[in-house]
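Reviewers asked in the last cycle whether our approach scales beyond single polypeptides. To address this, we selected a multi-component target totalling 836 residues and predicted its structure end to end. The input consisted of the following lines:
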Amino acid sequence: MSFLEVKNLTYTYSKNTPFFNDAVEDVSFSVEKGEILAIVGHTGSGKSTLVQHLNGLIKPTKGEILFCGQNIWNNEKNISSIRSKIGLVFQYPEYQLFEETVFKDIAFGPKNLGFSEQEINESVLNSAKLVGISQEYFNKSPFDLSGGEKRRVAIAGVLAMKPQVIIFDEPTAGLDPIGRNNILNIIKNYKKEHNATVIMVTHSMEDVALLADKVLVMNNGKKAMFGTPKEIFSDRNKLLSVGLDVPLITNVLLKLNELGFNFESNIITVDEAVNAIINCKGGADNA
Amino acid sequence: MNNIIEFNNVTYNYSSEDADYIVLKDFNLNIKKGSFTVILGHNGSGKSTLAKLMNGLYKPQSGSVLVNGINTLDEELDLKVKSTVGMVFQNPDNQIVASVVEEDVAFGPENLGLPQEEIRQRVDSALKTVNMYEHKNDMPHKLSGGQKQRIAIAGVIAMLPECIVLDEPTAMLDPKGRQDVIDTIYKLNKEHGITIVLITHFMEQAKYADRVLVLNNGEITADGTPIEVFSKPEFLKNSGLDIPQTTELIFELAKKGLNFKNGIISVDDTANAIAAALRK
Amino acid sequence: MLNDFTLGQYFPTNSLIHRLDPRIKLLLTLGFLILIFCATNIYALTLIIFFVVCLIFLTKIPLKMYVKNLKFILPILIFTTVINLFYTNNGNIILEFWKIKITDYAVVRSIFLSLRIVLLIIISSALTYTTSPNSITTGLESLFSPFKYIGLGRAVHTMTMMMTIALRFIPTLVEETQKIMNAQKARGVNFENGSLIQRIKAIIPILIPLLISSVKSAYDLAEAMESRCYNGGENKTNLKVLKIQKSDYLAVLFFIICCLIVFLFNIVF
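The resulting structure, written as structure tokens, was:
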């Protein structure tokens, strides 16, 4: 039994609504406890619709989502309880802040879930620490913070619900390099501390190479590829055909191979590339 | 006159309820006509303020900003300044005024009081330049982020500016939209001779520039060609910036004893340089 | 909740009516609405009904679209009709129970009133179905332009600019609302269940973020407009200039004939 399993998920949108969700067609995959799954695909490939299914915000037209073996729609009345187990951080989450103070805003989710006063305090403290928001900020208005800080407070608000699976929809969109690194560290740390499963929608192949255990490639609402980053990035042509590319560093090595070298196709990070090139140099020097 | 924009000892404070922040102090900068300048800097480095001073949206508290020799403090010539230096902002949704694409592009020329035939001709040619002509009767909210941003650019070029300042125009776009917008900007510079000032935190976009500035706490801390600026990776990281993976690879290999010319950015250059170093 | 919200009523079938000048359409709509209330007897009203049926046919818009709008006001329609039944004591009593008397005059009056409301809705639907919101704005600006001679030019321009921006931002705001709702749902807010007070409370986490992002959009938009040389509409010209065409004259002629016949019927019968 997988931790979270999606089986033949299909979603067709109704034409009568002004809210356009991209369609999803017959998508199946699974993710285990403690894994990071990256979902990639160009805009309109259905990835945002897909992740909104995972915590019951959208009901699938066909197929099912099994969390610990249970169909999340088995008890439809209780669908909001699944949202405490599977958290979702939307794109630009800073736009959901509304409380008077940072503390109250982070506590909003836990309060809705009916945590006790003590549990609320504890989980707010923990998640604030995890995102690097110090206690001095607790009584400030969230609207007085900088863009990057706002985003971290918003993320803390979802982490404070202590989800076992946490989904991030383009968590670093619009941030500068420092902000991006902060968010990626938060994701890594939460996973480590809670042995949680992370699902991350992203456009950055470099982030995928650094963080992900598995990758799901979406194209036109369908699953195009599924595997480890090394497997996915070893097929550049397939990625190009769905409007994506391999990490910049892999491109450099592919180019080197065109120039007559013979590097392995599964080098996806700068460190791996440095080692491979130095080894190659060493080999050539020794020969 | 060789400079389109000149900052002379500009000071600009931003005051809030609690305190005054000095964003720029005794700031000097010249932007050459026809150049392509990229300004890098982390959030809060003063980039956006700098941009808004360039077309008189913000006025300096002391010193002067000259656009084609016109002081931006001159109220009489305000429209001249704003039509000479066009501005494109980060959020594509918040800069489109009308609910039909061509009517939005026409907004600038309409404000300039141009005759109808001329507006029509400028709108059509601007839309063709950004490759959005076939969308001229569409509603902007149905377009993708990259398309909206190109509409915003068309709205600016319909005023026939000599210079366009773009404040993080690709921050909210996906990779495809980002590339389309950057290609459009590059074309405007190379084919139409429009001066470009591009503010960004996507480091790889610096490779299109002929001049790169690094802004940190309201001061220019680096100024040079892309190659010159990217040959100092440690410095860039300390300025709160990133470096492209290609530049990082070269830098790491150099530390391990391989010899390179520094500051290489593109994939092809990187591969060629490594190949040369390995074959030595 | 928001899914029932249709964006604008415009229904582009490019009919003869669609191509009429928006100013003419606005004026004629107003004219017809007045005419409906000028028709004092059943013959004149029948004639107007006949004209309106022709109008529906000419717009090439499916009848069910009009019916949809009528369904929307059905409760009001029934309410006013019933109230009117009891309202007057004139005429011969045809039904009497308890303290309530219904007269034949009241019945005729009720039928008249409900027919008028139905016609009113159909005619205004025809206007919004055949005229894009942008054309309505341009038309209104042009119609109000004489006000500039009495020093109200700025006011007229400001009004139309506001309408333009509202039209542009309604879809964006609706989208934004949906996004914020989903985000708060993901934080455990329950919009579907709970008491009335709980539901009202649940609106606050939507309203505040929406307000804040609207204020930010407004700031951004103001700077973008200023950058594009907007200075309050002074000397502003227009990409699209309205022009009266032959079909517009025909429409006006048609309306005048309608008026004449209706008044004739009013007098003769």
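Chain B has one domain: 3-226. We regard this as preliminary and will revisit it once experimental data from Aim 1 are available.
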